Amino acid sequence: MMEMFVRQNQELAFRIIEDEAIILTPQDGMLHNLNPVATRIFELANGRRRIKDIVTSIVEEFAVKDDIARRDAIRFIEDLAHKKLLVLSSNPAS
Amino acid sequence: MLLSKLTAEKKIPIYAFFELTRNCNLSCIHCYAAKERRKELSTQEIKEVIGQLKKENSLILNFSGGEAFVREDFFRILWYAKKSNFAIKIFSNGTLIGQKEANELAKIKPLRIEITIFSTHPEIHDCITGVNGSLGKSLRALKLLKDKNIPLRIKCPLLKSNASGYADIIGLAKSLEAKYQFDPKIIPKINGEKSPLQFQAGRKALFQILNDPKILENEEAVSGHITCSAGYNTCAISAYGDVFPCIILPIKLGNLKENKFYDIWHNSVRLKQLRSVKPQDLAKCHKCRILSFCNRCPGSVYLEKGNLLGYSKSACVLAKAKAESKYHLYS
């Protein structure tokens, strides 16, 4: 999984207000409010970064232990992908 | 914290209402819009405004007219807004939406399209719109959009001539799996001309509607607000680039051909005055015994009375009908 590329779902409407993402999914009209760590993961998900790259950035930026960051980051990415806010792919975005 | 509360406190214009044109292919008898001789915003000017709104963290962009689909560049504007990560809503009469337009809208995936239907009877609907055949075209649009799974709402202003047909509108909405909204609030034209008020449904008709169990099926909490979000987290931009707190609150805050949205939104003296109004400043309304049934609209008050602090006759009519029935009108 760590080798997979991750990008934002292109259908989303979103804004980042004071380090927290407010995301609206048009298909169901649901609003999602992300905490600062999840927001940073969402920002980093440009389709050209692998999950392992994003984890490395989170460890550096939030000064947390590598194993905790790794576990939390993967959990966030899985959750955001489940909610269709992020899309995982084995290939980078063009 | 709720998005609306958070954004209102921080003065983030999360809801932007963008009137793209005053031109319309219908001539509804009660319409509040008034055409002016000024030039409407160009495609490029509209794109620039959308960019400025994005910078201010606006998220939900509601396009309307007139009739937005009369603009030949409407889909270019929609795609630009989509690519700027806005959630898009469209208010339309639907008459210009055919198969090609429905296909394109399905790709854009708007949050919702709201189509106005006055009656399921063409002799009533078309009489209000002033155009024969308009009901058939609007119904065709609803069907095409439903087939594309686009979220829909049927909007129905309640006038003297159509109020008795409200149950048919509910039936139509249910058959299309669409939401519906009855609007009893008929307002003067935004140039102050009061002729539309003569068409508003009366208290007796509203009372009958509010007492119908079909309305009760869709009951929500009764609103008790006597101020609103206009100018806090809601803004409106006219086809001429004027910025207002709301499209029916014609207190001009500035013009986007002359100033940036940021400067208008943060520095307008008129907007600061509007934001300083507190519920207790509305002396008559603040002490009203049926306040909890009132949806007082500052725009209606301003257009009816010429000030922001008075009461709205049309809101009073509705609040009395609500208080008598304890039901209200939104699905």
Description:
- Chain A is of the alpha+beta class and 94 residues long.
- Helix content of chain A is 40%, strand content 30%.
- Chain A has one domain (5-83): Outer Surface Protein A, domain 3 (Alpha-Beta Complex).
- Chain A has a 3-stranded antiparallel β-sheet. Chain A has a 3-stranded antiparallel β-sheet with strand order 2-3-4, with helices on one face.
- A 9-stranded mixed β-sheet of chain B has the order 6-5-4-3-2-1-7-8-9, covered by helices on one side.
- In chain B, helix 2 packs parallel to helix 3 (74-83) and helix 8 (203-210) packs parallel to helix 14.
- The A-B interface holds A 11-15, 17, 22, 24, 26-27, 29, 31, 33 and B 3, 6-7, 10, 12, 14, 54, 57-60, 85-88, 109-112, 151.
List the helices and strands and how they pair.
The complex is a heterodimer of chains A (94) and B (331).
Chain A: E1 5-8, E2 13-17, E3 20-25, E4 30-33, H1 36-44, E5 46-50, H2 51-62, H3 66-82, E6 86-89
Chain B: H1 3-10, E1 15-19, H2 43-55, E2 60-64, H3 74-83, E3 87-92, H4 99-108, E4 112-116, H5 122-129, H6 134-147, E5 152-157, H7 166-175, E6 179-183, H8 203-210, H9 213-216, E7 234-237, E8 242-244, E9 254-255, H10 261-267, H11 269-275, H12 283-286, H13 298-305, H14 313-325
Parallel strand pairs in B: 1-2, 1-7, 2-3, 3-4, 4-5, 5-6
Antiparallel strand pairs in B: 7-8, 8-9
Helix pairs in contact in B: 2-3, 8-14
